[in-house]
Amino acid sequence: MFRRAFWFTAGAAAGVWATTKVNRQLKKLTPESLAAQAADKAVEAGHRLKDFALDVKAGMSQREDELNDALGLHQDPDRPDNVTALPGPRRLRAIQNDKTTPLNLSYNRNEDH
Length: 113
Description:
The protein has 113 residues and is an all-alpha fold.
């Protein structure tokens, strides 16, 4: 008698457990639940995209500072933040007009063909 009562109770408990699991899964598949899940995923993706964009922006400004230092472009305190000052004059090797070689400033387009 006790064995039958035990197995009856165990079967009833397993049936309740299975029914509860199935109902939970069915509730997850309703259109409202699917829409809510999709909205949550979209918001989560938006937050990830925002974090990525902020990381890229920080990396860009860091790299811009590195390039400005490498090129000698320094920030002028009198200028706004988005305008950089040009470097001072550098020694440039200009092509000097040698008096020994004549300058030919005319250009004949027909010579190219």
